[in-house]
Amino acid sequence: MKAVIIRSIIFLLVCVAYYGAAAQAPASAVERGSQIAKAGFRNESEIRDKFNGWRTDEDAREWLGIMGYDHSLIRNVVAFKPNGQKADVVVLVSDADGPTYRHGISIKLVSTANGFNQIDKRWLRQYARMWDMPDNVVSALRLFLGEDLPVGVSKRQDRMFLNELADDRQRAVLDFFRSKKERIAADVIKGEGDGRADWFMVAWKIAGKDEWKLVPSNVAINFFSEGPVEITRSGNLRIGRITLQRKGGDGGRETAKMMQFKINPVQLFELK
Q1: Which of 62, 77, 187, 224 is surrounded by the fewest CB atoms within 10 Å?
Q2: 156 has which bridge partners?
Q3: Consecutive 10-residue runs of the chain (272 residues): their mean pLDDT?
Q4: Nearest-CA neighbor of 120 among 110, 108, 112?
Q5: What kind of fold does domain 2-110 have according to CATH?
Q6: Domain boundaries, the chain
């Protein structure tokens, strides 16, 4: 008994130290949904706890199957919530053979079919560095976000909408986001580096039950970026199924000028 406890403690210490650099396990392309007649997912912590109870939790066992694991070959699973990462939950899976694999999961909890969730939010200058944004695109987006005051006619005194910009500015914005479409979608959905999310989960509470969908992040990226890049009638930018807009709100504080990307996570259930 004492030896078992010692081995368990060692495993936990190794996983915590290892997660950031661990290799990725092969992922199954299978995508499955499930309706669960239980109290429902309340937050990411509950999903973390379900993974930690994988030996008896049917949902966690199904998720691990989707992620490409044979339950009989799993030695242990440790899940935790990281700080400041694209992944909301990190799952460490230890094979019977010894290797430990890291899986970051981005989780979107929704309660309505028409709700929108923020998937990324930063200052324009950060995005400009990330994507090597040309000066003319930066200047157009500064007007859009309210970092610069309007030039010409605008519905607002503090900012402009994209469809209010001069034609050449609109073309510059559209050309840039069309040329960087796949890269941008990947950055705002999956992220990069040790904090990336290799899996994307939507948990939707409907009629007292939870319906979930778990897919590789690359599948979510392809799905949400599918479609044209265009300026909407409301003056925002649509990148496939992703919307780029000014954050707004915040009682008029400077943070209202941040740029944010949003999706309707429920749309992922359209994916068969």
Answers
A1: 62
A2: none
A3: 42 42 35 35 84 95 95 94 91 91 93 85 97 98 96 91 97 98 97 92 80 95 97 97 92 90 94 83
A4: 108
A5: Trna Endonuclease; Chain: A, domain 1 (3.40.1350)
A6: 2-110, 117-192+217-270
**Residue 231 in tokens:** 């300026």
Instruction: Tell me the one-letter amino acid at 216.
Output: P
> Which residues have C-beta within 8 Å of that of residue 169, sequence separation ≥ 6?
136, 139, 140, 143
Place of tokens 């599918």: 226
Contact yes or no for 182/225 (Cβ under 8 A): yes
Q: Which 3 state secondary structure label does DSSP give 114?
A: coil
